[in-house]
From TrEMBL:
It comes from Paenibacillus puldeungensis. This is Aldo/keto reductase. Residues 31-266 form the NADP-dependent oxidoreductase domain. The lineage of its organism: Bacteria, Bacillati, Bacillota, Bacilli, Bacillales. It holds the Pfam family Aldo_ket_red.
């Protein structure tokens, strides 16, 4: 199991991706965003996740440039993810959207580019565009987000390149076992968004008891549970102390009975949209 904040997993195409990163969903452009990412880089984070629809790629790019300079590291040491929005799902439109994201970020390439939602009738053309960009060396890895098993099966019927990552809503109340099993069986790395269920799990009595047992916080227990389930995770925070706290999960391991206890909290409860009924 991962031993440090720099620990990585190897995607099926050989690219290494950090187990833990920072997400910037709903963080607006401005000093708060820039400082949060710079804090993260300073404290050892190497993975940053954004998306076109977040409308903060320019700020993320600024933070990356300033952060790597301050930390004395290279761009190549970071793993940067963005996503194509649903209104740009088409071959030419997706390629154009990628170039726009790259320009806003001020980068020469992305480490990972995802289709944000599985919009029926559109994601296959978008995937063809991602395959082109990948084969041209403009993206290190390509994947999808919010895809259920039937979406993945449908995509893979015609895909020349299998998705390397599937980023989905994943937390103790939504364990997505079927999706996770399919991804494991097909060498697709599962990644969690909203791992803390937007704060709704912080007062769960079972999680509080487990946290006391390990002298950890509830968020640290959940994030550790993610990693021990083989799931990459990208908690969002803009506060330096919380960013540090979220990374202090590599000095303990949850016992099997506690893993099973957390697994049993599943209720198939979403805080985000249902991928089968997504309206953008």
């Amino acid at each position: 199991m991962s031993k440090s904040l720099q620990s990585t997993t190897t995607l099926h195409n050989g690219i290494k991706m950090p187990w833990l990163g920072i997400g910037v969903f709903k963080v607006e452009e401005g000093p708060e965003l820039v400082n949060a990412i710079k804090f993260a880089i300073k404290h050892g984070y190497r993975s940053i996740d954004t998306a076109a629809i977040y409308e903060n790629e320019a700020g993320v790019g600024q933070a990356i440039r300033e952060g790597i300079k301050d930390a004395g590291i290279s761009r190549e040491e970071l793993f940067i993810t963005s996503k194509v929005w649903s209104s740009d799902l088409g071959y030419e439109a997706t390629i154009a959207a990628y170039e726009t994201s790259l320009k806003k970020l001020g980068l020469d390439y992305l480490d990972l580019y995802l289709i944000h939602w599985p919009v029926e009738g559109k994601y296959k053309e978008a995937w063809r565009a991602l395959e082109t960009l990948y084969k041209e060396g403009k993206i290190k890895a390509i994947g999808v987000s919010n895809f259920q098993v039937h979406h993945l099966k449908d995509l893979m019927l015609e895909a020349q390149v299998k998705p390397m990552v599937n980023q989905v809503e994943y937390h103790p109340r939504l364990t997505q076992k079927e999706v996770q099993t399919f991804c494991q069986d097909n060498e697709i790395q599962l990644e969690a968004w909203s791992p803390l269920m937007q704060g709704q799990l912080l007062n769960d009595p079972i999680l509080i008891e487990i946290a006391k047992k390990y002298s950890k916080t509830v968020p640290q227990i959940i994030l550790r549970w993610d990693l021990q389930n083989g799931v990459i995770t990208i908690p969002k925070s803009t506060k330096e102390q919380r960013i540090i706290e979220n990374s202090n999960i590599f000095d303990f391991e949850l016992l099997k009975e506690d893993m099973e206890c957390i697994n049993s909290l599943n209720q198939n409860h979403r805080v985000g949209p249902d991928p089968d009924n997504f309206d953008f």
